[in-house]
Amino acid sequence: MNVVFLTATLVLAVTFPGSAQETAASTRTPLSQLLAEAAANNPQISSAEHTAKAARQMAPQITALPDPKLTYQQLSVGSPKPFAGYTNSDFAYIGIGASQELPYPGKLRLRGQVAERDADTKQAEIDITKVGIADGVKSDYLQLAYLQQTLGILQQNKVVLDLLIQDATAHYQVGQGMQQDVLEAQLNRTRILREITMHHQQMGQIQAHLKGLLNRDQQSPDVITDDLTETPLKTTAGELSSLVKKSNPQIRADANAIQKQDAQVASAKREGKPDFEVGYMYQNTDRRYRDYYEFNLNVRFPRKKRVDAEIAEAQEQLTVSQKTFDAHLAQQLSRVQQAYVQVTKDEELLREYREGLVPQSDAVYRAVLSAFASNKDQFTHVLLYFTDLLTLKLEYAQTLLDHETALAHLESLTGATLR
């Protein structure tokens, strides 16, 4: 019984804090390596980058003059046959000419500015995609670290419970315990086995999702994470809010969208100016007649009703962009504050678990186990405090996961490195 008691207390003691798996450090993959891999290989990021490159090609198209026209004419006199009257009429001729449309000065430049601002917005959207993918990788990585760590706790506590079941069985066989104690301990062991099975299921699902983000083959080796440890937050709420306004990718994209709509309003107003088309033609007649030289100037006057509607639309879209910017900024600041509150409160909870709840529960468990070993307490109390201690350690691990996940979200919202 003393051997069982010492083994049970020793095994349970090393489960907090502990590693999820007894794995060589060389096989672990740091989070930074996975983030770099996702940035290089994720197809969503690649798609966003090519979309931005395509958008950059719009400005050269829009700012170029309309395509020039080359005209060939042949005028017959007296008959529809080609060249009829060419040698006996000074009205018959062969004409060659060219024409060019000329938009009002400034129109092409303003259209180009709209295209450039749109390309800037697409470029900013790359960062939104990158941050979204990175946030997903971090979330999966932290969840895996949590599951691997708590899996270790469950497996070690299963070993302890097996020893306790042996001890309770020995008591029962010599008439010092009840069969109910053994059955209840076996039920708790089955519950731990169920939790271990569920952990393996969740780990498999997260591994599949993470490999998708990394664009890895699903049959490739699973990712082994580093241990989940607490990272203190050293940045104030005010500093985090300032970083949102400066570095948040969604806010930058919204700012670019406002600049685009500003350019669109200016361009729409310029569209009310007339456009021109100039042309020149040389008309050749028979040598006995004089040739003709023709110059054309056409002016296109945009309809005011259509131009006014375009200006009104552009102004409304500008208002939409400004309101979207304000809404997203308020939303992002709110998310930062929520994450900040969670991180700071989780740090307090972690300290309470680490310095109070877990050590105190462990001390009570050891005392009850010692009393049981000396036949001074009941096995049901041992099982109760064993379960309480296991629950507290799992709660500590969950709080640690929540803390690190909130920090990861703060990094995505602010562009800062906090972990």
Strand order within the widest beta sheet: 1-2-3-4
**How far apart are the termini?**
46 Å
CATH homologous superfamily heading = Outer membrane efflux proteins (OEP)
Roughly how many Å is the radius of gyration?
A: 38 Å
CATH class: Mainly Alpha
Supply the number of helical segments.
Answer: 10
SS class: alpha+beta
Number of separate strands? 4
Work out the helicity level. Answer: 55-70%
Amount of beta strand: 5-15%
* Number of domains as seen in the coordinates: 1
Descriptive account of the structure:
The chain is elongated and about 140 Å long. Helix 1 runs antiparallel to helix 9, helix 5 runs antiparallel to helix 6 (179-214) and helix 6 packs parallel to helix 10 (379-414). Residues 13-23 have low confidence and may be disordered. It is an alpha+beta fold and 419 residues long. The protein is built from 10 helices and 4 strands. The protein has helices at residues 2-13, 31-41, 43-56, 58-63, 107-173, 179-214, 237-247, 249-270, 304-373, 379-414; strands at residues 69-75, 93-102, 275-284, 292-300. Strands 1-2-3-4 form a 4-stranded antiparallel β-sheet, with no helix packed on it. It has one domain (2-414): Outer membrane efflux proteins (OEP) (Up-down Bundle), CATH 1.20.1600. Helices cover 68% and strands 9% of the residues. The protein starts with a helix and ends in a 5-residue tail after the last helix.
